[in-house]
Amino acid sequence: MVTDYTLITNLVKHLHCIDISQYDVSFLNKSINVRIAETHCNSAKEYEIFIQKNKEEAKILICMLQNSYSDFFRNPITFAVLERIMLPSLILKKKETKHKEIRIWSAASASGQESYSLSILLEELKVTDSYNFNYRIFATDKSEDQIRKAQEGKYSATALNNMNLKRLKQWFTKHGDNYIVKPELKKNIDFSTFDLFSKQLDCPPTSIFGDFDLVICANLLFYYKPKYQKIILEKTTSCLAKGGYIIVGEVERDILIKHHYQELFPQSGIFQKY
Ligand SMILES: C[S@@+](CC[C@H](N)C(=O)[O-])C[C@H]1O[C@@H](n2cnc3c(N)ncnc32)[C@H](O)[C@@H]1O
User: Fold this and answer.
1) Ligand 1, residues 105, 142, 200, 203: which to mutate, most atoms within 8 A of Cβ?
2) Is the CB of 235 under 6 A from ligand 1?
3) Which long-range contacts (CB under 8 A, 24 or more apart) does 64-67 make?
4) Are the beta carbons of 114 and 218 closer than 8 angstroms?
């Protein structure tokens, strides 16, 4: 069913200054249809009236659209390629050029799982690699709430389903029913809020000059319309160092292929622009 939701998007913008019309059309339609059903409205027209009368409803709809689901080592192929090929070769490159620091931007890091997964891989490589490299991960998200959770680094046992037992014991401390990330894993991560649609800033101010070897911008592009995907891609890749890589989610690979990026390993979601 194709319906014009302009009135609803205008209303949300008016009430909360958030432009939900940036979201991908089918994702937006699906979300609004779920809210129509859950609020027992019989039509889009009825929902328009409902959202006008119930200010909280706009917030619920916004929350639903701002999906912040994440997981440790979310795409196993990406993380396997990172662990076995990409990060060791990046370390070698640093060694050859006598640079010490690997710089990574996790650009939609949600509650931290992505940046902690990267930190685990790099800490483990520090033990096995003779080159004494440093690394810094700039973990950003537009949501203050998500960044607060990421900084806290507290996860339920269910949220850690993808973590093998060895890593769980080495990098987390059990607190009641939850697990807390150990400080060794946090010390090289800078958490801050950053909106990828910012007109003023090109890269997270905490990183000062960008120059990232790797930008991971996973499971975010596909929520937005093509025009906004392009803005995000331009913003993230403009901060890459020469020869740097961009990583996207499994379902977003086609977007990069359309924009003429080349995938380094099949299905890995790891791309370079030539
Ligand atoms: C589905 S989560 C993905 C988390 C993680 N990258 C992963 O792959 O597991 C999407 C995240 O993107 C963030 N986000 C959405 N729009 C954003 C924007 N314009 N700028 C920065 N972050 C944004 C949301 O707050 C949410 O935390």
Assistant:
1) 142
2) no
3) 64/31, 64/34, 64/35, 65/20, 65/23, 65/27, 65/28, 65/31, 65/223, 66/143, 67/223
4) yes
* Domains of the chain with bracketed CATH: 6-65 (no CATH), 76-273 (3.40.50.150)
- Which one-letter amino acid corresponds to residue 116? Y
φ/ψ of 217, rounded to 5, equals -130, 70
Q: What does the pLDDT read at residue 274?
A: 73
Distance 148 CA to ligand 1 centre (A): 14
pLDDT of 1-22, one tens digit each? 546 789 899 999 998 999 999 9
The answer on pLDDT for 28 being more than 60 is yes
- Cβ 259 under 6 angstroms from ligand 1: no
Predicted local distance difference test score (pLDDT) of residue 5:
87
Q: Whose CA is nearest to atom 24 of ligand 1?
A: 68
**Token output for 197:** 């649609």
Does pTM top 0.70 for this prediction?
yes
Query: Residue 44: is its pLDDT beyond 70?
Result: yes
